[in-house]
Amino acid sequence: MKMKIVSLSTAMMSALLVTTTLVGPVRAQDNKMTKSEMSSGKTVMVGGAPMYPSKNIIQNAVNSKDHTTLVAAVKAVGLVDTLEGTGPFTVFAPTNEAFKKLPAGTVDTLLKPENKAKLTKILTYHVVPGKLEASDLTDGKKLKTVEGEDLTVKKSGDSVMIVDAKGDSATVTIPNVNQSNGVIHVINTVLLPAS
After folding, report:
1. Dihedral angle at the C-alpha atoms of 131, 135, 140, 141, nearest 10 degrees?
2. Which of 83, 100, 99, 96 has the alpha carbon at shortest distance from 48?
3. 89-94 and 182-187 as β-strands: parallel, antiparallel, unpaired?
């Protein structure tokens, strides 16, 4: 009788160890992913690609079909390393369509090496130090950009607009695209500093 109990206990313990070995790592991984997703926000689709909260601004932006012009501009002025840095940064990211609203030939001109300083000024005008969620973008709030000039938040109903130094505004079309080093708010117009 004792022998049967010992054999049964041994068999049950072996089965438990095998189950823990096979299932344990999967559960640990699932829990880890859930905690990561919960702490960083949800994955949002932008330009036909998922924007993973565990990746940085550049790692996500290069996959968006709607931001190829922005990515080319960031590469042209050497801001890739900065936007891959720890941050946090809030980036108001104009789409390709936003760049097309500029006068004909503007983007091509800005991408020329001799216009690097001007393009850098425009791009850094779209970046605010710190992580500002949509709920932080309150009506009338002034946002000091990396470029040095302010942007102003304007709210109208459910719409959030970012007003540049020239008085032109961009509407936030996709808010709260969380990144490991900040947040992106997709906008429909290129913002321009006063100078």
Report:
1. -20
2. 96
3. parallel
How is residue 183 written in tokens?
Answer: 């947040």
pLDDT-wise least confident of 19-28, 35-44, 58-67, 133-142: 19-28
17 Cβ contact list (under 8 Å, min separation 6): none
Question: CA gyration radius for the chain?
Answer: 24
Are residues 48 and 133 both part of a single domain?
Answer: yes
Tell me how many domains the chain contains.
Answer: 2
Going along 16-139, which residue ranges are E strands? 44-46, 49-51, 89-94, 127-129
Domain membership of residue 138 (yes or no) is yes
For the chain, the residue count is 195
- 153 and 165 part of one domain: yes
**pTM (whole model) above 0.90:** no
Place of tokens 């997709």: 186
